[in-house]
Structure formats: structure tokens, C-alpha cells
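Supplementary material to the annual report.
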Amino acid sequence: MAARPGSPGPTQTPIWFWAIFAGLATLGIALLFSQDHAPYLSKYPRDWIIPLRFWISDAMYWLVKEFDLGLFTFKELTRSISWLLEWPLSIANNFLATGFTFSTEPGASVILPPAPWIAIVAIFGLLAFHLSGLRLAILVTGCFLYLAFFGQWHSAMITLSSIVIAVPLGVIIGFVLGITAYRHPLFEKWLTPILDLMQTVPVFAYLVPVLFLFGFGPVAAMIATMIYATPPMVRVTILSLRQVPEELLEYGNMAGCTRGQLLRKIQIPAARKSLMVGVNQVIMLSLNMVIIASMIGAGGLGFDVLSSLRRLAIGNGLEAGLAITLLAITLDRLSQAFTDRPQHSHSPQGRSVIGRYRLSLIVLVILSVSWFASRYFPALGVFPESLQITTSQFWDNLVKWINVNFFDQLEAIKTFVLINIMMPVKRFLLKTPWVIVVAVIGLIGYRLGHLRLAALGVALATFIAATGLWSKAMVTVYLCGVSVLFAAFIGVPIGILAAANSRINRITQVVIDTLQTLPSFVYLIPVVMLFRVGDFAAMLAVIAYSIAPAIRYTILGIQQVPVHLIEASSAMGCTRSQIRWRVQLPIALPQIMLGINQTIMMALSMLVITALVGTRDLGQEVYIALTKADTGRGIVAGIGVACIAIIADRFINQWSRKKKREFGLPV
Amino acid sequence: MFTAHLRKISIALLTSALFSHSALAVESKDPIILTLHDWTGQLINTELMGRILENMGYNVKYQQADYIAQFAGLESGDLHVAMEMWETTGKQAMEASLSTGDTVDLGETGMNAIEEWWYPLYMKEKCPGLPNWEALNDCAEAFSTPETAPRGRYLGGPVTWAGFDDERVEALGLDYEVVHAGTDAALFAELESAYQRKAPWLGWVYTPHWATVKFEGEFVDFPPYSDACYEDSKVGLNPNMAYDCGKPRGWIKKVGWKGGEAKWPCAYQAVSNFRIDNATVGQLIVEVDLEGKKISDVVNAWLDANKSTWEPWTQCN
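Predicted assembly:
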């Protein structure tokens, strides 16, 4: 029998598992050769497909056109929400990017121009200095000067204005949901699967319903951004409230705190640091959405990236993309500085209030002085075009040079990988009868976590087949699988090296930060130029985007190996390579596998983007649905992606938990 | 900043002097929302129209929206005018939308959409029989890549812009494999790459577009398109299959929200009066995409130089 979860000592995979596995494999081959007898076992028949996508489309139609809440219709409700959200958004936009007109006349002169660039640079520099010190101030000022000198200012301010509204809203909503879930376990039970879906269904899938309900424009883009970026905040809130030490709560109760006081005075301050991790995630994910949001009307840097790449102005696209990365880094470091800032909890309350007061006073002074000054020196208000610089020609020429001189070598590599690795995997997955795949998933699920996990896997896989998405799902699994494999082969060794050497570690961190925030479209187009449209180009883009967690978790895993184990093994006379291969890696493996799990999640979320270079997977299905405004089709395909993600996630997590228990590591 | 203001004010003064009757008499100050898509020609035409409407005294807003998904917004009145709907790619969506009665056909733009299989001119040396389509099979090898060899490789447009290329290949017995680009950005990236190396390339190209100006090349001559050829398998060279002919060439139309007709009648009339041709737009596209000028500068220059063309569009009765 299978070892019970929790039983100590390493376990061997039992004979029965391999026996059933071999039986299924034989059955699969038999099915392949005798397709005439039971064709429904190898290919899911068309007649059995549940027309779920049409039901969803009809439901959406009903929701938008007919659903009446009594006093007003559902659409009027959603429209009034978007009307409400439009106010702060347009004020932020006027302040940062376009200026206030106070008039609806066409061509009415701008009464108050947008905040001068010099003021924004100064304010952010000052804020950084106040929060952390000179180093951060220099970094932040440098990032903003890049925006000014490289001609990205106006677009960056449009993007920033939607971020400064979307992030606080997302944080607040996430926080409120998190607290409610923390207090009411039943609510949490309902919320968790919804959060799973929100994080795994590709954004493109719900863009269409969002457009229907909230109208075209920046508000709809912002709402889509919030749907995507809020879930981590909810999870982090629940988690960090739970981690507040029990004694503190008891102390609060003894002091006679009300529930609100307990929250404000004890729980939030105690959980502050981990809550900020959630805030940070919201910022990063919101910036990840910039490109997609620009497709439905957010404008700004995302639009610049898209439109320059459509003209194949690679250099311009890269500069605009880099501007997004720098914005992300700036906001990330600022929010980190805010968390790490020394707390003056013991100093009198009054002083910090005055301190804050002083800061906003300085901001007001900077703004009004620079506004006034820019009337006479326009260069202070709007960065003069004559001073702007660009390196775009260099990047265009670089790609051209590589293309002309190295195409043949690159082509040879590509052909080798494609014909020897990718094609066989693809063919294998597409040929394997669906029943066998479902059965194998059930078998592995049972082995890992008994009946519940097996049932979940089988149900989700059957859902994919029943909605007629099987072959596209298999292409998805193939593309993601191969990419993740490569990402692991590259990422894990880099992680091992970086864990041992702090210099390599620092460089690696910068590179993966950039890869994660640089919009993938920026490198997708050069990749297509060098490797042509097709699966290989898509795979490279997926690897570039999803390699980061494989590296991060490897570093973490190796650093977490208990020191006494390493000391003990070197005392026993192990060589360094023996320590690495026999001690460090096996113990770090569960953690590394969690990194691989994150890599899979990121690879899946990249699929919609790779559909832009012609892959024929679920991502393409979602993309087609978007361009045809077909709500049902998009959502069903999106849920298909979510099913794959959830199966992979649950299985790997279960495995990792089991292994960690065997090694006696904290789970 | 200041000069821009002066120019704006002077334009406003000028137009109000010229069209004081219309500037004073616009029916509604609510902004007319024009949709922007993601190709340059459309951005130029939209901004041209927007500036003309502003000159008439209307408020104009621009909104980024997807080419097909925008119909949802046009039907509900979130969006008002779309300047380019191509017969070759958007006809079905447009007809479906018009049949709801919530949108209205605002007439042709005067531009002519051409889309077809296309190759760079240097390929003629390797394949002398071109542009005749029958030469394609003789050169399949020349157009092949390692993955498709010995068959040729044809890079089709995005799947959403249905082009029936798979069907065409089968019906005409072409020895080619159809590969779909996900977006036209990817498609033209490949073309640029091949062109830099003078390498073989065969793919889907449309015009008006900067590519046909930047790269020298030709469209393949297929048997001419007819409705019957697409619908009736008996018509055409292959007696058993449809799609045995070239792609349709056709109009590019303007579409609007039905409710706008009553709200801004003069503006809608101006939109339906709008006429321009391939050569003019092609030239403007080149100025923007290849010479790096700003769209607004190009549009202003054209408006200044062609008053006699566009002023009559704004006459309203």
C-alpha cells in the first residue's frame, strides 16, 4: 500500500503504481491501433461536447441587455460604478498628463497645465530621500530623468495616473476581502476557488465581458487590471493576519479592545511587514497589465510599445518597455523603503504628524513654484524636445546585424530543437487517447494525495475534454511543458551558482527583475525576426518570462538547507561536490519544485501573448474570442487554462509537501 | 507649449471666422468618440476626421478599441464613429452589427483594400514565372524552410482575419504549407528579417500599408475573385472545391452608432462625405512610419495644404 502522508522516511513508489501505469500504456497503444472499435475513447466525440460557451454567451447577453434589479438594470449599476471610478482617474490624468481645462469647449485653452516634469522628479526624489536615503533618491531621480530624456514622459504619466488609482483601490478591496475571509471561514471557503480562477484565467478571457459591462475606455482597462492584481493582496492579508502571534491577540483581548481596535492597534501593525508584500505584488502585477490594458483603451506606455513594435521600430519599443520596467522598479523600491522605514512607534504621535505635514507642505511649494516658473520658462514644464535623446537606431541596427550575420547558425539550432525535441512531444501528446491521459492523471493524483486529489484531477481534465478543447489543451501542455523543462534546465543551475556566490546573485537579481517587468512583446518581435513565426519563437518568449521563479526558489531552497547538516556531512568527509549533489540538492528539491510550479503558472499566463505569434493552443482560442467579442468562447477557454494550472499546482504542491515532511523540513 | 497654444487659438479663430454658422450651431457639445485601432493608416484617417470635426465646432475624443470588439461599443453608444472597416476582413462583423439596427453604414472612404499573397521582388530571380500563381509550384523548394521542405512555406495573416488560405492551397493544389502569424506585427517582423537577408519569403500582405512602400515586391496573380468562386464549388478551376481563386479586393467603409445620426447630424454628414485614396494615405503612412514624423504634424500639414478638398465635406444643410 501507499505510504501514508506524514509517515517518516523516504518512500518508494510501490509496484502497483507501475503495474497500473504499464497497463494504461498498453491500453493506449492498443486504442491507437484499433481506433475503429471505440473511436470515442481516443478522440472525444463532437456530439458529446457540452455547448457551455454558448450558454455563457447567452447569459452574458441577458445580463447586459435584460437583467433588471428592480429600480435599475444591472448594466446601469455597472455603468454607474465606472462613472464613479472615472472621476479619480481623470483627475489623476489631468494632474499628471493633460492639464485641467475646466470647460467642455473644443480646443479650450488649458487653464492649469499638468504638473511640471521638474516638480514630479523633485517630489519623487524627495520622497525617496525621506523614506530611505541618498542611494534610493539617486535611483528614483535617475529613473524619472530617463523618462524625461528619452521622450517617454507624457505616456509614462498617463500610465502612472492609472497606476496611482488602481493600486490603492486594489489594495483596499483586497484588504477588506482578506479581513472578511479571516473572520468568516465560510466566506474564505467560497473565496479561495474564485481567487484561483482570477489568478489563472488569462486576462484576455474576461476583457470582453468587462468591456460590455463597464464600457470602452481607461476605466474598463483599470477594472481588468484590478481583477488581475488584487488576488495576491487577499491571500497575503489572510496569511499575515493568521501569523499574528496568539499572545498579542490575547493581550489585546485582556486590555478590553473592541474588534475594530484589535484590528487597528494590534493586528495591522503586527502584520504590517507581510501586508506590504501584498501591496508590492499589486504594484508589480498592475504594471504587468500595462500592455494588455492599452489594447482596450488605457493608452500610455503600453500603447507606445504596441504601436512601435507594429512599425517594427524595435528600439523605440524597447525604450518604452524599459520605461515600464523603471516605473515598476521605482514603485517597488519606494514601497519596500516604506516597509523597512524605522518605526517611531514610541515617539509621541504629534511629531510624526507634523513631519508628514511638513512633507506635504514642501510638495505644495514645489508644485506651485514650478507651475509659476514654467509659465515663463516652458522648458521646466514640458521637457524640451530638442534635449531628448534616443538609442533606438542602435537597437534596430543590432538586431539587423545579428539577423544578417548569424541567421544560419540560429536556424540550425532551431531546426535541431524543433525536430528532435518539440515535434515528438507534440505528436505524442496529440496522439495519446484522451481517456488514457485522464486515467494517468487520476492515477498520479491517487498516488500523491489519495482519492480527493485524484477526483479533482479527473474532473478538471474531463471538463477540458467535454468542452471540446482537448487538442488545443494538449498543444498548451506541450508548449508549456517543453518551455518549463528548458527553463528548469537553465534556471536551476543559475540558481545553484547564485546561491554560492553573492556577486553572481546580485547580477542575477537585476536580470530577472528586468525580465519579469519588461513587457514580453518587446522581445517577442526580435525573437520572431530571428526565429520566424512558430512554436520555437513562442517557446523562447515563454522561457524568458517564466525562468525567474525557477532561479529565485532554487536560491532560496539551497540557502534554507540547515547548516548543521552541511557541517555534519563535511565532518563525515564528504567532498564539496558530494555535499552539493547528495545533501544540498535533494533537500532543496521540494523548494525548487515549488519554483518550477510558479514557472508553470507564469508559462501558462504567457500563452495568450504567444498566441500573438501564431501558436495554436488555448491562448489562441482566448485571443480569437477577444477579437470576435465572443464572451462564452473566451471564458470557457480561459477556464480550460485554469484547469491545467490547477492540476499542475495541486499535484506539485502535494508532492513538495510530502517530500518536505520526509526530510523533516517545515511545511 | 506657448506656440502650440497660439496655434490652437489661431486655428480656432480661423475656423470660427470661416464657418461661424456651423461652429455656433453644432447640435450637441457632447464629445463624438472616434475609435483608434493599431495600424497607422487608420490612426491618420481618424485624426484627419477628428480635426475636421473639431473645426466644425464639435468636441472630439479618441478611444483605443479592438477592430472587431468595437462593434459592441458602437451598438451601445459607448463609441460613435469607426473610420476604417475593411470589406476583406470586417465585412461579416459589420453586416451582423448593421442587422441589429444600432449601427449605421457611413459610406466608403474611397480607399481600396488589396490583400493577397506577396513576395519580395528579388524572388523573381529564383522564380522567373512569378507573379503568375502557376509558377508557385515550380518554386515550392525555393520558398521552403527546413520545417516545411520540400513544400513551400506561406505565412498567412492572423487567424481572426479569415483569409481561407488553407482552403485555397488545397483547391488550387499548391505545394505549400500555411503557417499563421498571430498578429501582423509578427508577420512583418518576419518579412523585414527576410528582406534584410534577401532570403525567400512568401506571405500575406495588405495595402494601404507601409510595407508595400518600404519593400519592393509584388502580389501573386491568382484567378480573379468572384462571389461565386467562394460560394460555389463548381465555379473556378477546381470543379470540386470552392476558394480556387484570389482574395476579394474591396471597399473600406466608415461605421457609426445609429443614435449619433440624430444627435450630431452635420457631423455624421461630414463623416460620410469623407473621401481619400490609397496614394494619399500611403504617402501619409510613409511620412509617419518611415520618416518618423508625428501623426498630428502630418495631419495638420495635409489639412493646411488641402483645404479645398475637405472644406466641402463640412457643408451641412
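Chain B touches chain A through 59 residues (CB under 8 Å).
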